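R.M. (postdoc): so does anyone remember the format we settled on? I'll just put the structure tokens first.
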């Protein structure tokens, strides 16, 4: 039998999973519906947040969002090349995922 996960692990999955659960609740309860431009708006907001986070990383010598270096553990970023080149395929994958998530809500013309 394994040990109980550490608090940071529990917090990480609750916070990130909670954001997804809230989004799904709003969509499934029909309180909101993604608009055609929503994936692009979400990606733009993410890019702006990443720019702010990158500046924060430089000033405070941190590595939030893995913008300054890859994580020590194996990840999908290992397939995208060395720093800073892995940032471009990561952004491309991000926009593809945003578009794929919004595709379900597009109405045929």
């Amino acid at each position: 039998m394994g040990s109980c996960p550490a608090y940071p692990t529990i917090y990480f999955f609750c916070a990130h999973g909670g954001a997804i659960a809230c989004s799904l609740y709003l969509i499934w309860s029909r309180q909101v519906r993604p608009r055609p431009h929503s994936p692009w708006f979400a990606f733009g907001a993410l890019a702006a947040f990443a720019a702010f986070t990158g500046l924060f990383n430089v000033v405070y010598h941190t590595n939030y969002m893995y913008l300054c270096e890859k994580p020590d553990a194996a990840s999908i970023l290992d397939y995208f090349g060395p720093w800073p080149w892995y940032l471009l395929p990561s952004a491309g994958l991000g926009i593809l995922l945003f578009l794929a998530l919004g595709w379900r809500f597009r109405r045929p013309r």
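R.M.: ...and that's the designed sequence above, right after the tokens. Also worth knowing: The chain is about 55% helix and 0% strand. The mean pLDDT is 89.
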